[in-house]
Amino acid sequence: MRRRFSFSLITCLIAMIAVFMLFLSLFGVLNPAGGKLEHSLTQQLDFSFNRIHRNMDQLAACTVEFSQEMTAQISAIDLPFTKLRNNPEALTDLQHSTYATVFNYLRLADCSGAFFVLNTTVNDSLEDIYYSGIYLKYVNVGSDTTFQNSVCMFRGNSQVARQNNINLSSAWEYETKKNTFPQMEEVLTQVESNPTKGYLLTAAYQLPNAWEHVRFLCTPIADEKGNIIGVCGFELSDPFFEAQYRVSEAEYSSMVCALLEQNNGVYTGQFARNQSGYMPQLKGNISVKNQDTFSCFGDESISLIGKMKDIRIGSSLHTVAVMLPKNQYDACIRAGQYKTMALFLVVTLLAVLASIMLSHRYVKPLLRSMDKIKEKQFDHDAHIPEINDLFAFLAEQDRINEAALNALRREKADMQTSLEQIQNVHNETMQQVERLAYSRKDEVDPYDYEDFKNGLKFLTEREKEILNLYIDGKTVKEIVALTGLKESTVRFHNRNIYTKLGVHSLKQLLRYSAIMKQEEGEGKKQNGIS
C-alpha cells in the first residue's frame, strides 16, 4: 500500500514538473537549442581566435625578418638614402636588387601579397605625394594554398616586372599615392623603429581601381641609425582571408567568421564564409549591440547573431567574431522549443494518464473507505487488502473502546455516589462547626467582633475574593493557583485583611466568619417566622 501510494504521489509530481517545464519552454526560458547554439558559437569563436592569433604571430615573425633583410639591402647601396629622392635610375636599380627578396617572402609567408614602401619618390615635384616601392600579389586566391598561383605587380617599376616575367595588375600604378593606406603611412611617422615592436595589422581597405578589400600586416624599415625610412609587410585580401579562416561548423550552414575593427562605434572588416558558401551581404558599417549571451550585428539590410572577442596584433586592436543570420538563429530556437515542448507534452500526458489510472485504482476506493469510516461501517469491502485490514482493526478497536467506555461510566457513577456521600458528611460537619462556633459566641470579645464586621466594608474586591477562599478552606498555595497571583502578593493581601478586620490569626478570622454566617442563618429563619 505504501509503495503504491508513493508511486501515485511521484507520478502526480512528475506531471506537475512536466507542466511547469512546458511553460518554461513555451516562454523561451528552457531551450536546449539555445544552449547548443551558444556552445557551437563559442567553440567556433575559440577555434577562429586561436587560428588567427597563431597565424598572425607566424606572419609577424616573417615581417620582422623581411624588414631586417630590407634594411641590409638598402644599407648596401652606394648612395645615402636621402640621395634616392628624385633619382629614377637609383630607385630602379634598388627595385631590381630587392625584387627577389619581396618575391621570396611572398612565397614564404602565408599571405596574398608582399610589399615594401619607402619614404622617397622618383619625382617630388608632382602635386600629389607618392611613395616608391614594390607591391607583388597573387593573381587568384581561391584555395587554402597559394603556392601554385601566378604573381603580378600591383605597384613598382614595370621594367622590373618584365625582367622577371610577371604581368602588371589591371590596377597597376608606378608608385603608391599618399593617403591610400593611412594606417600603413602612420608607421612611417611612429617613434618605434624596432620591427619586433612596431608592427601592426591595418584595417581593411578597398584597393584603388579594384574590387577586393585588403589589410596589411606591416612593420617599419629602419636605416643603420634607427631612422624609419619605409614600411614592409604582407597583404591579406578578402579571398585569402575567406580561404584561410573558413568556418568548419557543419550543422549551422550560414555561420561566418569575421575579423573586425571598430571606428567611431561601428565595425568594418573581413568575412570568411561557411562550407555552404553563404556570405552576409552587408552594405555598410556594422553596428554591434552586446547582450547577456550573444551580440547582435547588422546594418540596414541584415541582422546577425553571434559572439565576439578582442584580439591584439602588435600595436593594433581588432575583434574576432562568429555569427549567423538572425532568421536562422530564430529558426533554430523555434525548432528547439517545438522539440522540447513535444517532449514535455508527451511526458505530461503519460503522467496525467498514469495519475488518472492510479486515482481510479487507489484514490477513489480510499475516499469511499474514508466515508465508511466516518459512518462507522467497518463491514464495507474496499477491494484493497490494506483497507480491509484497517476496517477489521478499527472494528476491533471500536469494541474495545466501547467496553472501556462502559467500565468508565460505571466507575464514574460509583465515584459520583461516593462524592455525594462525602459532600453530605462535609456539610453536616460544617454545620456542627458553625453551631459550635455560635454556641461559644459569648467567649468572643464583642468589640473585636464588631470591629471584624465593620472592617468587612473596607475590604477591596481582591481582598474579599481571598477572604472567601480562606473561608472555603483554601490554603495559600491553592489561592495562588486559583487567582494567578504571586505568593508574596497573597500574603500582602493577608496582612491588609488582618489589619482591616482586626484579627491576629487565621483561626480567629475563620471563627468570626462562622459566627457571622450562623447569625445570618438565624436572622433568615426569624424573618421567615415573622
TrEMBL record:
HTH luxR-type domain residues: 452-517
CDD domains linked: LuxR_C_like
PROSITE patterns: HTH_LUXR_2 (PS50043)
SMART domains: HTH_LUXR
Chain ranges passing through the membrane: 7-30, 341-363
GO molecular function: DNA binding
Keywords: DNA-binding, Membrane, Transcription, Transcription regulation, Transmembrane, Transmembrane helix
One GO term (biological process): regulation of DNA-templated transcription
Pfam family for this entry, one: GerE
InterPro entries: Sig_transdc_resp-reg_C-effctor, Tscrpt_reg_LuxR_C, WH-like_DNA-bd_sf
Protein name: LuxR family transcriptional regulator
Native organism: [Clostridium] leptum
